[in-house]
Design a protein that fits this description.
Keywords: Disulfide bond, Glycoprotein, Immunoglobulin domain, Signal. It contains no helices and 24 strands. By secondary structure, the protein is an all-beta fold.
Length: about 210
């Protein structure tokens, strides 16, 4: 089982701890196939081995090539791979290899990706003229985001309740059933990804007129 914990708030370091899962090989590996990380945070990824009197040789790979250590990305004395800090340029597939007298063992690869929230909305709300009783749709397609961004709608610069039977979301679009005069106002949508920095993007505003 994989557990993730922050062991230093000051350094904002994330450490992945891998418990022992058996005695079938020298290598202990139970990481997921992919992880999303906050860019700028510090990250430590271990290459765990079974207890042994013989100290194994550990080699880290990125995209199936031996990883070249830098002052920012390097192997610790406990054979863990450290990123101080993790950057988007580090995105890729990583694996570790362990060798000793018992043989040579290579872990499955793990894909690391830095979270991000792009700048441009793929679709934004437009000024709309409607009549009383019309059904109105205001469009919003948030920017590319990893992980997916949450979308919140605002009316007249306050969060909009979209859980009523008359006003609700269709995907990320805002749907107003049977427009009323009280629906007139300024609308916009906000994309939020708390894993990225910046974490918020705001669409253009749209004026809804009801006659």
């Amino acid at each position: 089982m994989l557990s993730v914990s922050v062991f230093s708030k000051e350094a904002n370091v994330t450490y992945i701890d891998i418990p022992s899962v058996g005695n079938t090989s020298v290598l202990d590996w139970s990481l997921p196939s992919s992880l999303i990380l906050k860019e700028g945070s510090s990250f430590i990824m271990p290459c765990m081995t079974k207890p042994s009197k013989e100290i194994p040789i550990v080699t880290w790979y990125r995209e199936n090539s031996i990883l070249n250590a830098t002052s920012r990305v390097y192997v610790l004395t406990n054979r863990s791979l450290a990123f101080f800090p993790y950057l988007a340029s580090d995105n890729g597939n990583y694996s570790c290899a362990v060798s000793n007298s018992a043989g040579f063992f290579v872990s499955p690869s793990i894909s690391l990706t830095a979270a991000y929230l792009s700048l441009a909305f793929r679709k934004q709300p437009l000024d709309t003229n409607s009549f009383l009783g019309d059904n109105v749709t205001l469009s919003c397609d948030p920017p590319d985001s990893v992980p997916a961004a949450e979308v919140i709608w605002y009316k007249d610069y306050s969060p909009l309740n979209v859980t009523s039977n008359r006003i609700r979301l269709l995907g990320h679009d805002l749907y107003l059933y049977s427009a009323k005069l009280i629906d007139r106002g300024i609308y916009y949508c906000v994309a939020i990804n708390n894993w990225s920095s910046p974490s918020i993007r705001t669409s253009a505003t749209a004026q809804l007129t009801v006659k």
